[in-house]
Amino acid sequence: MTVAASPSPEPTAAETPSWQIKLLYDGQCPLCLREVNFLQKKDAGRGLVAFVDIASDRYSPEDHGGVSFEAAMGRIHAVLPDGDVIQNVAVFRRVYEVLGMGWIYAPTAWPVIGPVIDGLYSLWADWRLKLTGRPDLATLVAERDQRLACNVEGRCR
């Protein structure tokens, strides 16, 4: 599934990124980190995948397809070099394809298996924070907003 991104001009050759997909991941999620570590090893320094930790206070939606912190925490997202944003199982399919392991997620595009996998991922995404011992999404967003306000205003020293 592709989420509409704000239109942007086509990048020039000098502006074209070296990565083929920018993966937005939760650096505070132990299971997410395990997957990212695996993918980084498979990338082997080639830079095919740009890894962006959305849990970092430096995460900026404007730099990453306009995907808000809340949206990125709710479902996995990735940004393509042309600025298109994809989410859910399509992200895994594309990342694994870029890294030469597309066969692993290929069945998730099949007519019968795809909807089942999409449903399972949706359940996982809904329960991910609770299952990994984290606060709920609203709490994480409020805590981040408070931290960012403190950092900008310097009032929380």
Please identify the structural class as seen in this structure.
alpha+beta
Order of helices and strands: EEHEHEEHHHH
* End-to-end separation: 43 Å
Question: What is the count of structural domains?
Answer: 1
pLDDT below 50 for ≥5 consecutive residues: which ranges? 1-9
Arithmetic mean of pLDDT: 90
Q: Looking across the biggest beta sheet, what order are the strands in?
A: 1-5-4-2-3
| Oligomerization | single chain
* Main sheet summary: 5 strands, mixed
Strand content: 5-15%
Count of individual beta strands: 5
Shape summary: globular
Report on the architecture of this protein.
This protein is an alpha+beta fold. The chain has one domain. 45% of the residues lie in helices and 11% in strands. It is built from 6 helices and 5 strands, in the order ββαβαββαααα. A 5-stranded mixed sheet has the order 1-5-4-2-3. The N and C termini lie far apart (43 Å). The N terminus is likely disordered.
